[in-house]
Design goal:
- It contains five helices and no strands.
- By secondary structure, the chain is mostly helical.
- The longest helix is centred in the first third of the chain and has 43 residues.
- The two termini are 33 Å apart.
Length: 120
């Protein structure tokens, strides 16, 4: 009977971690997409000083979340997003760089969601 209870506790623990992971990734990606959209608006309005501050904010936010996302995800996906975020300040075409970074974050989120397509 102890084995059954151990299995039940283990399944509940795994389920709780999965639910937490889904919530964490959703919050993190949602916030990152929101900040990137704000940066795109600043870029279109040609507000360079505010854009630099927003990029600093994005990079600081990513630095906080990056290590924890490594626990949940494929490292190559996180590395690619990190590369784009870290190189935003040096981008020659800011509009394209912001758009590509946002697209990568959206793709990452779609790949991390629990859907039948992702499970099978």
């Amino acid at each position: 009977m102890k084995r059954v209870w151990f299995a039940v506790v283990f399944i509940l623990l795994c389920s709780a971690l999965c639910i937490y992971q889904q919530g964490y990734v959703k919050r993190c990606c949602g916030e990152l997409i929101y900040m990137l959209e704000q940066a795109q608006e600043l870029e279109e309005a040609k507000k360079d000083d505010e854009l630099k501050l927003k990029i600093d904010e994005i990079q600081k936010y990513w630095k906080q979340k990056n290590d924890f996302l490594f626990v949940f995800s494929e490292h190559s996906d996180i590395d690619e997003i990190a590369l784009y975020i870290r190189s935003l300040k040096e981008a020659h075409n800011m509009k394209s760089a912001l758009s590509e970074t946002k697209t990568l974050v959206i793709i990452y989120y779609e790949n991390e969601r629990i859907t039948l397509a992702n499970v099978f």
